[in-house]
Amino acid sequence: MTLALDFISPTPASAPDRVTLFVDVILPLPLPRLYTYRVPFELNDNVVIGGRVIVQFGAKKTLSCIVAAVHETPPANYQAKYILEFIDDAPVVTQPQLKLFRWMADYYLCTLGEVINAALPAALKLSSESRIQLHPGFAREDNEYPLTPQEGIIVDALGTVSDGKALTFTEVGDLLGIASFHKVIKSLMHKDVIFLFEHTADKYAPKVLKKVRLAHRYVSAGALEELFNVLGSKPKQLDALLHYLQRVPVVQNEHANHAGLEKAALTSSPRLSASAVNTLIKNGVLEQFDQIVSRFPMDDGTATQPNFDLTAAQLAARDEIMTHFGARDIALLHGVTGSGKTEIYIDLIQQALAGGGQVLYLLPEIALTAQIVTRLLRVFGARLGVYHSKFSDNERVEVWNGVLGGRFQVVVGVRSAVFLPFDNLALIIVDEEHESSYKQYDPAPRYNAREVALMMGSFQGAKVLLGSATPAVETYYQARQGRYGLVTLSKRFGEAGMPDVELVDTRKAREQKTMHNHFSAELLGEIERKLGAQEQVILFQNRRGYSPVVACDDCGWIPKCANCAVSLSYHKHSHELRCHYCGYHESMVVKCPACGSRAVKTVGFGTEKIEDDLKIMLPQANVQRMDLDTTRAKNSYQQIISDFEKQNTNVLVGTQMVTKGLDFANVSLVGIINADSIIHYPDFRAHERAYQMFVQVSGRAGRKGKKGKVLIQTADPTQVIFDKVMRNDYEEFYNYEITQRHEHGYPPFTRIIKMTVKHVEQGVGEKAAILLAQELVERLGAGAVLGPEAPYIFRIRNFFLQEITIKLERAHTVLRHAKEQIGAAMDVVRDQKEFKQARLVADVDPM
């Protein structure tokens, strides 16, 4: 469908006081600049910066975009098209957001359109292929708002709710036979007749409670008495009715009866008959109805203000943080695992809210929100919002609007929560600030939420508190230099002490033949002892799947991904081989396709094999696994954590997810199955990551008074890093690491930008990378440019990769100049006809 551009007749030029307005808009596309559109004269008063408008882009595409500026200057190089429709009469993107988004585009070498595309929930981004569907709560006969003829046509075309039909915007335009139909859609949305979604898979399914209530004709003492007489010979129905009346005082409070009772409260009761309840509904004694409720538990939560008192150490840390905030805007809380950082966060949030400000509480993993939200809900009730990637698009819009409208003063979220429309931030907390999960890798913007949070604080005058037991080296360096305040908690909360850490030499164990599959006798025996004492165990293995490699014993053949330069991992549950980079999968082979041998074996082990082996060796244990494969479903994190908290699970096997801030009272043993695979990695941050991971997962043990124990299995116990982990000596680790960084010119003493050239043809990609490197050397100097070279995994998703590393001095002027030169060098490559299909990716501050 092509939307006509002349559907609004321009006001005659002779009209008095006519002002022709133009708007610069941000399209959710990777475009290098903003586009200017003309505002129809009669809609001049509708223009709002930060609001959405519908425009035509190209020959046929229609898109919603954000108004970034309003002015009276027409574009110099093209004829401005008219805006087709105004969607909002108030901003959906605030001025502080626009300022932050511009900074992100500039700093992370991407376009403003890419930032907007990442920031806005899909339901706020409309296009000609957006879809509409009847709201599940809509019933035409009960709708309180009358429908216009055009609205009626759309509703008729959608049928009934049970039909589940959907229409694209293109189909709506064709159906109504008009170009300007967005007002009709907007009106239907306001009347709760329809909702929007981007893809069929995103169809909105609201949370619906099935409820029952007593029919109105029985809501009196006399009518009830007659009903009892009628049901006297039907004891099961009478029991169900009496149970309802015990829960709902219908005579004393007719409003309570109107609100009704969840049907499950009757049908799930073991002493009531579900069929009797259904018979009462069928005979008109009870009425069944659906009630749409919010998905957010905090909407129904009442703040109970739990009475917890900060310890003397926590009070001292809190006061020290406030003192630092008096002199600077950023502070680092360096507290050992289990030191009670969360209670300090809660106290600071309460103070920020008392001053009338908003608070953003960032966490690195969705898994953490399940525990933290439960604690914060008791304190902040309905003022608390949650935002993460497992939410459906419509849920994200609900939180977005809740922040915009002031409904949520506190938001707990993962990295994408930095995009929310805050305009009065008083405090930002970045918990576990060292975590690489805060870094977005693909697509653009490739931002780090920690750095964005620091800039948000700067733009909005908010204080920023970074918290970690193992701070990032760069963060601790800034604190030691006095740029950030530094507060230390060196002891655990209450009576809990730090766990004992022991090393198990797996090379020696194999020589002595005391290994059981991948478990040393020490680890297996300790697990059995803890289970016998009714205590829980966490086992960490930093690789998912059953086996990372499958190989033929006779000829050495190894199955490889069709799209990437990696071997396929075996997943036993689905009995298939999978690529962990692109998702390619195929059935597990029985016979080697190269030599025909049946000697196809699995090599190595992942979390799935650890779980499988434990269930065989310890059949009395209830073992559960937490990794990417078991947490794909929306509420799977919460379920796994809930089962472990309730001690329905004895042993939790997991990848990095189990290392990040989880708090379990009954865990007394942590086992690290294969420490060596984490240490030996070709990256300057490998030792830092290994130290953080070991210390963090060790910190899950012995948090509530029980003495914890950590067993680390390694084939090389002499590694220097283990000594620092065993003594929990962050200062010594930092001093060693910062010396290495200084000697070799790595952050925080330099800034790094990694350039990646991608192409489907290896030779063309290499030539493009060589040209880019030459251009960069010419502009930045040979000492600043390393490469190009193929990375260890040189092909992903059918693209061959070449990488160039750029090292720069820390000065902002140097960085600004370098980015201009990088952009110019990229333009030179893109202008070559041979390299038109090459993808050039810039990653600022790669992790």
Automatic annotation (TrEMBL):
GO terms under cellular component = primosome complex
Which SMART domains is this protein grouped with?
DEXDc, HELICc
> Which of UniProt's keywords are assigned here?
ATP-binding, DNA replication, DNA-binding, Helicase, Hydrolase, Isomerase, Metal-binding, Nucleotide-binding, Primosome, Zinc
Q: Where does Zn(2+) 2 bind?
A: 561, 564, 579, 582
Domain Helicase ATP-binding stretches: 322-489
Q: What's noted on cofactor binding?
A: Binds 2 zinc ions per subunit.
GO molecular function terms attached to this record: 3'-5' DNA helicase activity; ATP binding; ATP hydrolysis activity; DNA binding; zinc ion binding
Tell me the InterPro entries matching this sequence: DEAD/DEAH_box_helicase_dom (IPR011545), Helicase_ATP-bd (IPR014001), Helicase_C-like (IPR001650), P-loop_NTPase (IPR027417), PriA (IPR005259), PriA_3primeBD (IPR041222), PriA_3primeBD_sf (IPR042115), PriA_C (IPR041236)
Q: Biological process (GO) annotations?
A: DNA recombination; DNA replication initiation; DNA replication, synthesis of primer; double-strand break repair
Catalytic reactions of this protein: Couples ATP hydrolysis with the unwinding of duplex DNA by translocating in the 3'-5' direction; ATP + H2O = ADP + phosphate + H(+)
So what EC number does this one have? Answer: 5.6.2.4
One Pfam family linked to the record: PriA_C
Instruction: List residues of the Helicase C-terminal domain.
Output: 584-754
> Where, by residue number, does Zn(2+) 1 bind?
552, 555, 592, 595
The enzyme's first-digit EC class, named in words, is isomerase
Cofactor(s) required, per the database record: Zn(2+)
What does this protein's UniProt record list under function?
Initiates the restart of stalled replication forks, which reloads the replicative helicase on sites other than the origin of replication. Recognizes and binds to abandoned replication forks and remodels them to uncover a helicase loading site. Promotes assembly of the primosome at these replication forks.
Per UniProt, subunit arrangement is: Component of the replication restart primosome.
The protein's matches in NCBIfam families, at most eight in alphabetical order, are given as:
priA
According to its UniProt record, which protein family does this protein belong to?
Belongs to the helicase family. PriA subfamily.
Q: What is this protein called?
A: Replication restart protein PriA
The top of its lineage is:
Bacteria, Pseudomonadati, Bacteroidota, Cytophagia, Cytophagales
